[in-house]
């Protein structure tokens, strides 16, 4: 865990300064989220996870990523939107945060799109406190849709190297 | 620069081998055993010389200086100018240790340990050649090399044309295998002076009969000019032992087995040459006997092991899907799958075998530990090792050094009596520490024994009571008293000694061994000595596990800690006042843990049918019974780290991947025992 922390701090520090050039957008419940494409290692279909004892309720479990044990986080549960009941149609985004690999459970991946830095806005004040804690910024797309950019370091529980 | 770094790394890796060789040679010399003292002295000399040569190339002056002094003393011994004596043996052993330290220091870029270096240098200088020269200024190689090179022509040596060297170069297969190019060597020689090269082809067979392992092509090089012998030897440093090289002063026709033209093959066939070739001091015995080896980065082996693990899993997933599709009964498919499974299993075993290394280097290090401990305590002791060839996974070996060091020191410091006591007991003054390794039922068992006084149980108990570790009225069996030695905070020496003390006790050793999946046992008999037994898994990568299921979850219990399993019907379960349950066994009550409840999968189920009970034992002998719905299997599982990507999980030591590709967690028995509040059974009620 100690090795992951500095790397994490580095990503944190870099995030607000330079928004990613490209993002992967995905849907959780009816909301659109995105993360910088640099974090995403791969996107795979849902496979049943093994429950991790004594983990937070939003940690769905661990899956086998070609021989590596990777924890999967239910983003809906983490964001206070109610836990998903994952099935074959759900997807897991494998993201690398520092040295650590984590899976993010989402309903679907929507797009991989270039990002215009001008579209990245700070969070509006009226965003709920709970959601606000996990978001780095919002992206307003020309078509009016809004992408919430996840702050990955805050999504993770401290036991997985997150910032609490 | 990257190349240089790589070379440097290779040099230090080679140093390890050379130091090993040096260590065993020195011990042979000290013990007066070995394949004839001359051979041993030569072997030791060569090792020191090779280290010096390499160190010179990297500008490691401290190392070169010391190695040179060392060489000087060895050379005196080799030439018979110095006689072997116990004092010399001791100084040589210390010098060997020092060389080891200097190599480490050079590798780490640390300053050499000045004080011990001075001591080792002083020790060596006592034995340095009496011919008055400052050994550091005197390159000793030359005169001796000439004497030994060509005994037959020795009288001629002085008369030989000093301006001509005759060099015979006959590469062995190993030289080519290491990527050395004779042409490059000859080109380098050309830098020393004008030379004539003649290929000696008389042994060379037609291509059809060519044996790659037995190259016959050789060269005779006549080097004119006033090249230094040392400079010539220096060029051949890298191929030492890989080729038959003789360097003789004088024109070819004065040299033995003359071959003036090189074009007219003499009658003597090449096969006779080894007998005719005079022994060159720095020539190693033919390396053909040792199997060829390569150095491989451990990461690559690990990656291979990982991939093979995946292959095994993929195969089993495939066979399950075929079964699901109703194709499993097809003979061809089933047969093909069988063969694939078999092959994958064999590959897996082979990969594991790559990681396996003999324990010898660790055992050799222990010789030094013993020597230093004996010196520090003023006791005299020797180490007897058996089974040094026992192979164990490399990572296990690395992590064995600390616990073993501690136990050897402990055996010398606490195990052996002082000389007077030993005399009084009718034992030889020199104590014997035995270090034994052997494979036993899929594990490796290492025993550290001493012929000391055994554990003074009354004293151990007294100390434990004083420290409040054991209550005065507890009734303890001898083995339970012995086990006190492993309790944290117990140290039987009143003051922390420099040798085995350092504020840590055997409890640390036990923890280190347990971290390796091993167990430590102890046996002692009053007056005759004690023996500590370490039992370790052969590898950290696989584990014998019992696969259990509860609440739809599959988990693995390490088989090593499973004592027994029983069905619900065969057991008597008692409920304690606090809602806990205990399993009644002939040996007493054993606390029970409902795994499903422990991992929060369902509320405590105090009345329901627990399915099966598995009694597991901790390293301190404490027991706990865990409940599961059923036992699925007993098999070897490949251990995968959970911590790497998921952080530490309480109660879980690792994970494995099941045949269907899903993950099963491996339970940590110690954590379960801890959670059950199960103390060591023997001390239940006795621990204050």
Report on the structure:
The complex is a heterodimer of chains A (164) and B (688). Chain A is of the alpha+beta class and 164 residues long. Chain A contains four helices and eleven strands. Chain A has a six-stranded mixed sheet with strand order 8-1-2-11-10-9. In chain A, strands 3-6-7-5-4 form a five-stranded mixed sheet. The longest helix of chain A is centred in the N-terminal third of the chain and has 14 residues, at 4-17. The model of chain A is unreliable at 1-17 (pLDDT under 50). Mean pLDDT of chain B is 76; it is low at 131-160, 254-288, 494-503 and 678-688. Chain B is of the alpha+beta class and 688 residues long. Chain B contains 22 helices and 22 strands. Helices cover 41% and strands 21% of the residues of chain B. Chain B folds into five domains: 2-138, Four Helix Bundle (Hemerythrin (Met), subunit A) (Up-down Bundle); 144-286, no CATH class; 298-356; 359-537, 2-Layer Sandwich (Heat Shock Protein 90), CATH 3.30.565; 542-683, SH3 type barrels (Roll), CATH 2.30.30.40. The interface between A and B is medium-sized, with 25 and 30 residues.
